[in-house]
Each structure stands twice: as structure tokens, then as C-alpha cells.
Amino acid sequence: MNKFPKLQNGILRFCRDESMFAPGSRVVAGVSGGADSMAMLHILQALSRPLGIELIVAHLNHHLRGSAASMDEQVVAESAAQLGLRFYGGSAYVRERARRRKLSIEAAAREARLEFFRRIVRRADASAVALAHTADDQAETFLLRLLRGSGMSGLAAMTPLTDLDGLLVARPLLLTGRRALIDYLRSNGLQWRDDASNRDPAYTRNRVRHKLLPLLESEFDPAVRSILQRTAAILREDDKLLEVVTADALQTLRDVHGRLSMAGLRQLPLALQRRVIRQWLAVTLQTSLPADFNTIDRIIRWMGRRRSCGQLELERGMQLTAEYAWLRVGGRSQSAGELTSGRKSGCSVILARTGTVYWPPGGVRVTTWTAPGLWKKRSEGVGKWPCRATVALAPAGRRRLRLRCRQPGDRFNPLGMNGSRKLQDIFTDARVPVNLRDNIPLLVCGEEIVWVPGYRVARGWEVKDASQRVQHILIEKKGVKACSR
Predict the structure, then answer these.
(1) Is residue 60, in this structure, part of any structural domain at all?
(2) Same domain, 208 and 266
(3) Which pLDDT belongs to residue 359?
(4) Residue (of 291, 290, 333, 294) closest to 310 by Cα position
(5) What is the total count of domains within the chain?
(6) Are 286 and 363 part of one and the same domain?
(7) Omega cis (within 30) before 50
(8) pLDDT, tens digit, 9 for 90 and up, residues 143-194
(9) Can you give the CATH number for the domain in which 275 is found?
């Protein structure tokens, strides 16, 4: 049956060069019934033995074309049966989905397909889904993104293998033209379905396919599709290199809490600033959906106006926060009531005179013991570990010392100062990020704050006679012994 060994061998070589399919794996072929996907189905089945894969067929009925859509499903199911392959069918009412989610028909259809393929990949215990995107689709995608205003990553267009939030998408036909696939189908007597919506000029891709590309071929260069495909491939390799540079820069500018250094970011060229922010958002928010140019540009302009603190609302319920020299991103802040409630519940640990406890909010270990002596070295700052202090035992009497989170209205009587200070002001002066302030364990006795780690001991709790037994407290990162007694 195979009258196109060169075509099949080229696709086999491409799949191997891109390590598209792991030998011994199960692959879901997403088949619409159109010429491209039907050709892919038969070619992958012919190549399943040399590739070492088991093929499964999946088709989603979008319910956009009435009885024609049902015929598409029937043709795909029959073809799968003739090839002896398992078939999975699904339904999605795309028009209703688009209306409900305020999406275009194209976007709603793509969203529905990806959800469907995720389900089938999980159900069939498959490693990837193969989609029939061709070299023509690549040229169209390049032009679409160029017209919309895209950077290098966008103009690199589609990749042979893409990870979409855990769904591995393979494109074995990405170097193959549509005409070659139709010739393959006709010469081998294989059927396919024509989708009338692929000629509807209401869709932007159809206008690019049937108007713009033919115009470029006739007026500029008959090989324009190959040229665009080659340009996308060049940009894709350049983009890979820049992603490595970006990852290195991000590793340098990101701290252990996932925050991004504004000062370091400003020193980078603008192009690298954009890439670092884009990658930082993707890594921090754990999403494969990139932030668009407008969002990133808005962040850069907003960041340029920040001198200390502030917040910027982003899309999808996200919020960017400037904390002095750092940027942090996350969900919108809790209300004051929620924060107060959170601090009061489970945020207190009683200390023994000698022993070790763990403080989960800050991920630190707190060791206590009694002995003569006075710790005089200055700490590196509030919330910086390791941190150590000595306090007098007499003021506690029979009461136990304990650790707790900050509370609204907290005040502290620092040694060496008259009167008291708001704890909030101490944290602000020490530039402690708002989201980290609840992680700092305060040493208290009753309701009195005895020690703010990294700042000072309270007035009245100072050690006056170092020859007497006093209370020693050491705070260090959990699992790391940083100081000796």
C-alpha cells in the first residue's frame, strides 16, 4: 500500500531526531477526520513498529457542523477499526462553551480538545498525543503571530514536542507539506473528510491560508512557505539559547523565597528583563501559559516607579507586590480579618528551659538551654538566621517562655530605649517583607514580647550578671547547625 517510502522515511527520521516518542510507549493520535490527521494516522500506524509505539485513536466531536460532524466521527472510528486500533470518541458543545467562557469559537475548541486529550492520555496510560500540524500550519502560525505582534518565542511558532502543563504534544508532520499528504492519501486510496469551516473567511487563519499566503507566493516568492518555516526554525534555536541565558539570570536574581531582585533586574538589558519576568512568572505560578507583552511591559513600567512598597493587580487573580528591593507574585492579599484569624490559630509554641522545638511557619529550629554567659554578637538582621540571644531568668518567675507569631497592635519595649515601639514599625525599618513577617517567631512571656529575633531583647530582660545561669536561645534553619554553644 505504501507508495511514498521517501515521505514516510522522512517523517520517521524527524521523529527520531526529535526524540518524539519513547520506544515501548503508547501514543494517542488526535484525528479530526481531515486530510492532515487521516494521513498522520495511517503514516504513524505504518511506522509504529520501527518507532516502537502502540497507537490509539481519539476524536472529539465539537458539535459545530450538525450531521457533518457525526459523519467525521464515524469515518475516524471506521478507519481505526480497519487498522485494528483502539478508538476513543468524545463530545464538546463548543459554541455553548465559547458563550459561557466569553471565548472565540477557535479558542473554545482548542481548550475543549486539550481537555479531551488529557483525559484520554490518562485513561489510556499514554505518554503523548500526536497532532497533525504541518509545515503549512507552521507558516500560517508564523504570519498570524507576526500580525498580532509577537516576540522571538512567538515567532518560533510550533515546536516538534511541546509540554502543555503536563500534556506532551508531538507534531510528527511539522516538516511535511499539506499537498504531499493529500497526494499520499489519494495514491493509497484513503478517505478523508473536508471541513467546510476551513474555508470560512470569518476565521483569521482561513484568510491567512487562502488569501495572504497565495498572495505572497504569487507576488513575492513561490517558496514563501519554506522560507517562513525555515525562519521559524532559526528563531526556535535562537530562543532556546536565550532561554538558557534567561534561566541563569533568573537563578542569580531570585532569592530562596521566590522573590525577584528589582535592582538586579534593572541592570539587565530590556530584552533580558522581559524574558526574566516572563520566566519568573511561569516558574513561580507554575503555568505554561506565558504572560503577554502588555502584561510584562506594564510590570516593567510599574517597577520603575517603585521606591519602596506597592501592589499591582495582574490577570487571573494574581497580584504583584514590591517589597523594598524585591518583587513577589501570588494570589490577592487576604483581608485583615483573615490574617488576624490565621495568626491566632496554631501559632504558639511553649519552650522548655532546655530542649529543642521546631517553628513550622519559618522552617527553623529553636534550641534553648540555661548556663552562665552573655551573647554579645550582633545578629545580621530581623528574620535572618542563625540568630541568638540571652535573657535573664528572674523576670519569668514560674512562667514559661513561648514563641508566637505577631499580633495586631503588638508593641515592644527595646533595651536601650525609652518607651515602646510598634512591632510593625520595627519590621518596616528592618525591611522585612510583609509576607514573611508571620514567619518570625517572637519570644514572649505572658503577653510581653521578650525578644524580637535579630533586633533586641526587651528592657527588663537583659542579663546583668553573666556569672549567673541565664536563658540561651538559638534559632537556626531546620536541619542546619550554624552555631555552637
Answers:
(1) yes
(2) no
(3) 81
(4) 333
(5) 3
(6) no
(7) no
(8) 998 988 888 878 888 888 888 877 889 999 999 999 999 999 999 999 998 8
(9) 3.30.465.60
Supply the pLDDT for residue 247. Answer: 87
Compute the average pLDDT of residues 85-111. 90
Pairing of strands 128-130, 167-170: parallel
Which residues partner with 162 through β-bridges?
Answer: 169
> Which CATH number do you get for residue 141?
3.40.50.620
DSSP conformation letters of 385-399:
SSEEEEE-SGGGTTP
Average pLDDT over residues 305-331: 73
Residue listed under C-alpha cell 469551516: 197
- 412 touches 421 (CB < 8 A): yes
The residue assigned the cell 517567631 is: 441
Residue range(s) defining the domain that contains residue 400: 346-477
| Beta carbons within 10 angstroms of residue 315's beta carbon | 9
Are residues 301 and 382 both part of a single domain? no
Q: Are residues 300 and 271 in the same domain?
A: yes
Lookup: cell for 463 = 542579663
Whether pLDDT at 80 is above 70: yes
Q: Is the peptide bond before 360 cis (omega within 30 degrees of 0)?
A: no
CB 415 within 8 A of CB 457: yes
